[in-house]
Specification:
The chain is mainly α. The protein contains one helix and no strands. The protein starts with a helix and ends with a helix.
């Protein structure tokens, strides 16, 4: 009788050990799967963030280039306007200077 009880206890212990081992294996498999999923999500997020950054960089540098070009055009137009104005009044300025330099006041 005692032998049968011991055999049953050993069988139950063996069965419990198999259940624990199966649970441990399932846990390790799930942890490995979770790690792979997390690495994949991190990689996707990194790629997405990098693409957003590149898009924003291209958008802002494009605007900057357009602004520089617009400012150059405005500056050149203003310079041309000042040259035209200077050439238009230069004869009057020269005449006024000559009149004042050659006039002697006592």
């Amino acid at each position: 009788m005692e032998s049968t009880g011991i055999q049953q206890l050993l069988a139950a212990e063996h069965e419990a050990q198999q259940i624990v081992n199966a649970a441990r294996t399932a846990k390790m498999t799930r942890l490995k799967q979770a790690k792979e999923e997390a690495e994949s999500e991190v990689s996707e997020h990194k790629t997405s963030t990098e693409q957003d950054f590149q898009r924003k960089l291209e958008a802002t540098s494009g605007d900057s280039g357009a602004n520089v070009k617009r400012l150059e055009q405005e500056t050149n137009a203003k310079i041309e306007q000042l040259k035209n104005e200077a050439s238009r009044i230069s004869k009057d300025v020269v005449d006024m200077l000559l009149k004042n330099v050659t006039t002697v006041n006592n």
